[in-house]
Amino acid sequence: MTVTPKISINNGNLVVNGKTILTGVPDNIVLTPGTGAGLLAGAFIGATGSNSKSLHVFPVGTLEGLRFMCLFRFKLWWMTQRMGTCGKDLPLETQFLLVESKDATAEGEPDDAPTIYTVFLPLLEGQFRAALQGNEKNEVEICLESGDTAVETDQGLHIVYMHAGTNPFEVISQAVEAAERHMQTFVNREKKKLPSFVDWFGWCTWDAFYTDVTAEAVEEGLKSLSEGKAPPRFLIIDDGWQQIGNEIRESNAVVQEGAQFANRLTGIKENHKFQRNNSGENKATVPGLKLLVDEAKQQHNVKYVYVWHALAGYWGGVKPAAAGMEHYDTALAYPVSSPGVMGNQPDIVMDSLAVHGLGLVHPKKVFNFYNELHAYLASCGVDGVKVDVQNIIETLGAGHGGRVALTRAYHQALEASIARNFPDNGCIACMCHNTDGMYNAKQTAVVRASDDFYPRDPASHTIHISSVAYNSVFLGEFMQPDWDMFHSLHPAADYHAAARAIGGCPIYVSDKPGNHNFNLLKKLVLPDGSVLRALLPGRPTRDCLFSDPARDGKRC
Fold it and tell me: CB within 8 A of 306, min separation 6: which ones?
């Protein structure tokens, strides 16, 4: 049976198909029915305030006695799931909410009334970004903010989109498609070009070497896996290859722990660790990075090489007036987190940058920065980039029209440069779980779906997998989720491998050379280095959408 729910406010109640979702809806809440193709089963929630401000918190109504699953940012960079039944269970920085409503039936009576699933998507409107949260009175609230005290409004008319139906997965897809039609600032996953590396086994240098990675270490890692008959066909050279400098003197630093996050980029080329001795005639002219990439492809049959960089260039941005980089008009900026992020979990990166500042390339010059960086990488044979630390940009909106405007400028420049320099759409988005970025992604097709794989934290593994799966319910509508690297020789290796085998994600490890479980890898990797990847993003099954197997105390 097909049901097209009607969404309305009746006598102060928000009602979907005759089922009350919220009670006590204030008079300043405005409901605008969706119109046009794909929007008929939905409606927009708006709110008006008494004065103009850069940050509003609007109560929308009371939520009680209904199961929900939400995705919220537990830290600046990443989302995870939470389940609840009332408004006070709804965390700060909620970016996705799915509510289940069904009629109670008397014992012995048939339960043929359809269960209705209602999705709430807080959106971007103009220069403002919305998020949901709850309070102690069980009210659901909309937090609407610009991230710039000079950018104010007294209302938002289309700041949350609601969509409802009887199949939760269809409702979620339809809701995101409707938001796409309304906003016209992003494109859903099915319309994007998926880069080819996702169908090949890979190796990433991060957990093997961290920032101590060298050209020789990369060669050692590729050789070790190839000799074990698990040949990596894509390679990610993670953080550690770039030219960086740190002018922070430890004795003068206010923030000691985490001061390394203030390091800034000083050049677009590889650092001394990747300069190679070349015995050929062009010894002085062939970049070390090109030599390394050529060796990886010619000697180890690597098909795709990606390298890491932060959205701002490096963790601490770009060094202002660095030699050869003066034309980027970089200036120090001091990030400010939103109250919602600070209320969930302060961040060591922010603590450092709030003191030392971040070298922010001027938004009008950031395309030039990306294009020159990516053109150099492409000239070295690099096929794409893993662009990390993305959400830092939302904290730097002051003086640039706010967080939404600055994020949009950076993402548009990034995607334009990717399109120009990496024809296979070679980009992996990372540390990027904010709607400022997701609702501005017209091209990026792969997204890291959760916080990191932490090899030395035994408690992290179930949380990691469950977060990826639940986050994919939402993220998978925008991009192909990437479940991150893992170690093949590890107490939780089988668990991680099994999850990735059905996740529809790229499969890659970060093993140290010589530390491999080849029996496990042969279950994932075919002899030619390809993998059998599931067609769609892996998501929780319907029976556990509203119960958290990682935290409910009922499952191991």
Answer: 197, 234, 235, 236, 237, 382, 383, 384, 385, 386, 426, 428
Picking from 535, 304, 514, 322, the residue whose alpha carbon sits closest to that of residue 424 is 304
Can you say how many angstroms the Cα of residue 541 is from the centroid of all Cα atoms in its chain?
A: 22
SS3 305: strand
Q: Quick check: helix, strand or coil at residue 40?
A: coil
CA separation for the pair 201, 225 (Å, rounded): 11
Which residues are registered as beta bridge partners of 360? 331
pTM of full prediction above 0.85: yes
What's the CA gap between 437 and 432, in Å, rounded? 7
The pairing of beta strand 19-22 with beta strand 13-16: antiparallel
Distance CA 122, CA 351 (A): 28
Beta bridge partners of 281: none
Nearest Cα residue to 332 out of 348, 350, 307, 355? 355
Residues 318-370 pLDDT 10s: 999 999 999 999 999 999 999 999 999 999 999 999 999 999 999 999 999 99
Signed CA dihedral, 5, 8, 11, 12: sign only: positive
CA distance 450 to 483: 7
**In 3-state terms, what secondary structure has residue 545?**
coil
Q: What is the mean pLDDT of residues 33-60?
A: 89
Q: Quick one: pLDDT band at residue 139, thresholds 50, 70, 90? A: very high
